[in-house]
């Protein structure tokens, strides 16, 4: 019988140990690192970046929406910083305000709030503090001209319920309340009034719209802003390119895009740049492709219902 070579056995064992250690290292390196930042951001690679409250604090929120609690505002006492941060905490692990470097993170918050401020403003040209200081003045559409009830078999209208604009990014139409309600697991189809009763829920609905593709064959506003969306050849031919301009295309389509330098589009851009300045980023970093004046809509209104 051949004698065993002890040194050979040791070498084999050492080799196996090294191989096992390498496999373990490779397996661990294949999994992205995840982090926890307390209640605000948990168990996500995005939580390894700064969280929104690290760079956007109460005084900045107050600066952005400085006139929201004046007596003439419709939503006095409704909107506050805590409601926004609580709502944002649901989406920070998914990349809202936590994607990329600090400038991109701050830019996304300014971009999102720029839309919010524009759509909830009661400011006008000679308003105290200027027309851009009056965001979050409203929480609902005032004097709606219709009930916004569409014949939709998936989300039929509830008798006696009106689906006029409510929330931080106002939601209109029964099918949009139904879709967003499904996403939030809240019965907004039967109770659209929840969006004017709970500020945290109203912000959640708005951020859900920002983070989620609301129509087929189009990206989310989040993806087009942070650069995760890659335009196709058809997108390029239609002048749809990543940037703030494309967020307006995603959210409003040809209501504001492809119409030239219309007031509705310019008002949203003005709020965004004003907020960049107040947050300390500066409008010089409002990025390329700022407007959508010449962009073709992702889903023209003649062939698709409005998401607003």
Task: Tell me what you see in this structure.
This protein has about 300 residues and is mainly α. The protein has a single domain, classed as Lysozyme. The protein has 11 helices and no strands. It has helices at about 5-30, 50-55, 60-65, 80-90, 100-120, 175-185, 200-210, 220-225, 235, 245-250, 265-280. Helix 4 (about 80-90) runs parallel beside helix 7 (about 200-210) and helix 5 packs across helix 11. The protein is globular and about 50 Å long. The termini are far apart. The mean pLDDT is about 90. InterPro entries: Glyco_hydro_19, Glyco_hydro_19_cat, Lysozyme-like_dom_sf. Keywords: Carbohydrate metabolism, Disulfide bond, Glycosidase, Hydrolase, Polysaccharide degradation, Signal. GO terms for molecular function: endochitinase activity. It is an enzyme of class 3 (hydrolase). It comes from Musa acuminata subsp. malaccensis (Wild banana).
């Amino acid at each position: 019988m051949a004698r065993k070579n002890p040194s050979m056995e040791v070498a084999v064992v050492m080799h196996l140990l090294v191989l096992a250690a390498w496999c373990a290292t490779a397996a661990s390196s294949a999994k992205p690192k995840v982090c926890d930042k307390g209640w605000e951001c948990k168990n996500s690679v995005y939580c390894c970046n700064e969280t929104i409250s690290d760079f956007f604090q109460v005084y900045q929120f107050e600066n952005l929406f400085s006139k929201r609690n004046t007596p003439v505002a419709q939503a006095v006492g409704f909107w506050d910083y805590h409601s926004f941060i609580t709502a944002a905490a649901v989406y920070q692990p998914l990349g809202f305000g936590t994607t990329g470097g600090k400038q991109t993170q701050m830019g996304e918050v300014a971009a999102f709030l720029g839309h919010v401020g524009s759509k909830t403003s009661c400011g006008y040209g000679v308003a105290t503090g200027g027309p851009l200081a009056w965001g979050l003045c409203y929480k609902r559409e005032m004097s709606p001209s219709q009930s916004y009830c569409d014949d939709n078999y998936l989300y039929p209208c509830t008798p006696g319920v009106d689906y006029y604009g409510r929330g931080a990014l106002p939601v209109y139409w029964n099918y949009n309340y139904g879709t967003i309600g499904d996403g939030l697991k809240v019965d907004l189809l039967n109770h659209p009034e929840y969006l004017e009763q709970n500020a945290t829920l109203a912000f959640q609905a708005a951020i859900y719209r920002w983070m989620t593709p609301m129509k087929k064959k189009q990206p989310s506003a989040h993806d087009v802003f942070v650069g995760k969306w890659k335009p196709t050849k058809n997108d390029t031919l239609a002048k749809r390119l990543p940037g703030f301009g494309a967020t307006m295309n995603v959210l409003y389509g040809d209501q504001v895009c492809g119409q030239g330098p219309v007031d509705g589009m310019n008002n949203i851009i003005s709020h965004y740049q004003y907020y960049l300045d107040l947050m300390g980023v500066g409008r010089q970093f409002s990025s390329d492709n700022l407007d959508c004046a010449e962009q073709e809509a992702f889903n023209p209104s003649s062939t698709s219902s409005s998401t607003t």
